[in-house]
Specification:
- The chain is mainly α and 339 residues long.
- The protein is 80% helix and 0% strand.
- The longest helix is centred in the middle third of the chain and has 41 residues.
- The protein starts with a helix and ends in a 13-residue tail after the last helix.
Length: 339
């Protein structure tokens, strides 16, 4: 057993929760951003401007989704050479047979097996690609469709529940997805994997914006303009270390999410596409997704987007934070980050 563990260490095979559900899932999100997300943005530009070049860019960007997921995960998990290059075929197969999660599972299995055999034989140029591609495609073929069905069913259940109970589900979806965004896992990857769109997607966006804008404003006195931009347009995950030290600081943006979620679902009826649902204000992808989902939304959509994504998270988080600072639950320096 000790020899096997030493072998895994030598081969950079890290059989841990962090490797597969933090690092790999985060890398998967980056792969999606570099393909499907940017393709969706260009598709929207093409639809609105009528410029054919945008549609062409969108077509090829979206077509590279599986490959981008594979390269991102393989790179993050320390793959190199033939393992990294061979993973591309696995990502394409996984995405076609089981969507993003199908690619995620197939690529992880394939590259870990590939790392074990890489440079272990005299015919590595044949063995490594064969092991990676064969194992990955077989996994994609075996589990891709069932994974896709489960993810789709889960997303449909949440969307239907939100349609039936927009107030309650507006709170639940907004709070849960918002908190996931701040945790060191990818809310964007999760929302896309289950296809969380429509009204539920709007609630998810509200929760993510509440965390990002909320923490940006809440911590302004500690982090000033650099922190405002880093958290408001980057990620609220920067506060995770401070949350561990003092979980109370998570209360203001989470309460803001509980308020903006049902406002999104019940008053403005905001919708989003799955790729934008878990992004919040990161690169303004959340609002762009709302516009993509509701191109004819009119003034109601624009007002709702302004209030739910920006104004209310800022005002509510600042107000709740002010109260907690007054009673001493949040102290000076509790929200300080390196930015």
């Amino acid at each position: 057993m000790r020899d096997f563990k030493s072998f895994l260490v030598r081969k950079k095979v890290d059989l841990t929760w962090k490797a597969y559900f933090v690092d790999a899932l985060g890398a998967m999100a980056l792969g999606l951003f570099a393909s499907l997300l940017i393709g969706t943005i260009f598709q929207t530009l093409g639809d609105k401007t009528g410029i054919e070049a945008f549609a062409t860019i969108a077509k090829y960007a979206k077509a590279s989704t599986g490959a981008a997921i594979a390269v991102a995960i393989a790179y993050k998990l320390g793959c190199e050479g033939l393992v990294l290059f061979s993973a591309i075929a696995v990502g394409i197969a996984g995405n076609e047979l089981g969507g993003p999660m199908g690619a995620y599972v197939a690529v992880i299995v394939a590259i870990e097996l590939g790392k074990m055999v890489y440079k272990e034989t005299q015919v590595d140029i044949l063995v490594t690609p064969s092991v990676v591609i064969i194992s990955g495609v077989l996994v994609a073929y075996a589990v891709g469709a069932p994974i896709q069905k489960v993810m789709t069913a889960l997303g449909s259940f949440i969307e239907n529940a939100t349609q039936i109970q927009p107030f309650l589900m507006g709170i639940v979806v907004s709070v849960v997805i918002g908190m996931v965004l701040t945790l060191p896992i990818s809310s964007a990857a999760i929302c896309l994997a289950i296809g969380l769109g429509g009204l539920a997607g709007g609630a998810a966006t509200a929760g993510c914006c509440a965390q990002m804008i909320g923490f940006a404003v809440l911590s302004f006195r500690e982090n000033r303009w650099g922190g405002l931009v880093a958290q408001g347009l980057g990620t609220s995950m920067l506060q995770m270390g401070n949350i561990v030290k003092n979980p109370i600081i998570w209360i203001p943006p989470t309460l803001a999410a509980a308020i903006t979620g049902p406002i999104s679902t019940c008053i403005f009826h905001l919708e989003n596409i799955p790729i934008g649902s878990g992004m919040g204000t990161c690169g303004l992808v959340g609002p762009i997704g709302i516009y993509t989902a509701m191109p004819e939304g009119g003034m109601n959509m624009w007002l709702g987007m302004l209030l739910v994504c920006f104004v209310l998270p800022a005002v509510l988080s600042w107000l709740f934070g002010l109260i907690l600072r007054k009673i001493g639950w949040i102290k000076e320096g509790d929200l300080k980050i390196d930015c």
